[in-house]
Amino acid sequence: MEYLNAFEQSKMEKLIFSQDNIAVTKAQPADVLEIYHIACSVGQNKKVATKGFLMDNYASDPKFYQTKLLQNIFELKYFYVARSKSHNKIIGFLMANTKEEWLKNNEGWIDEVYWSPRFDLGNTDNFVFVDKTAVYAPFTGRGIGSILFSTLLDDAKKEGVSDVLAETIIGPEPNFASLSFRIKQNYKVAGMRYETYKGKNLTTLVYHKEI
């Protein structure tokens, strides 16, 4: 089922791409179903490299993924939603981890990365890790991700965080939309990592950006 019907999408497109019409707030428990629908729109079995994607197939197990998203809302310091003010609909979200949050669930991650010789490992002393950014599929590529990311940078900087890290999959399915976003936001390639996830061998580029 579509999160928005064709009529709602048509009406929203006329207003949505003004920054004044987008409100970014911290995710709340009441937002979980809307967040889940956004995740389903870009997290499917079929990966569309040019549109961007999430690795998991969220529609495959609604109860599991909704519970997992709700847990993230309660536990993560940086979990944002972008909402259309004119339609009061969530159209995107960004989930980021503090260093402590990321390493709690990804122990040994720093040692798993093949860091570039040009990368200063001191930049891993105090970072936020951008785990997931998702925009409702019909509205991708319209700057909503940039608005979410800008809010994260502002908040992290106020907390004294100096660096942002993120990963983008380049194999077996390259996420070209994510790669383009990293370039747009002036990330620099910091390293590479290999991972086996749900039976797939993944290759990811690790990106870094100073705040």
By secondary-structure content and strand pairing, the structural class works out as alpha+beta
**Poorly predicted residue ranges:** none
| Counted beta strands | 8
Radius of gyration, in Å, reads 17 Å
Strand order of the largest sheet: 1-2-3-5-6-8-7-4
Helix content: 25-40%
Q: What summary fits the major beta sheet?
A: 8 strands, mixed
Query: What's the CATH H-level superfamily name?
Result: Gcn5-related N-acetyltransferase (GNAT)
3D structure, described in words:
This protein is of the alpha+beta class and about 210 residues long. The protein has a single domain (about 5-210), classed as Gcn5-related N-acetyltransferase (GNAT) (Aminopeptidase). It is about 30% helix and about 30% strand. Strand 2 and strand 3 form a beta hairpin.
How are the elements arranged and paired?
Elements: H1 6-13, E1 22-26, H2 32-42, H3 62-75, E2 78-84, E3 89-98, H4 99-105, H5 109-112, E4 114-115, E5 127-135, H6 144-158, E6 163-171, H7 176-184, E7 188-197, E8 200-210
Parallel strand pairs: 5-6
Antiparallel strand pairs: 1-2, 2-3, 3-5, 4-7, 6-8, 7-8
Helix pairs in contact: 2-3
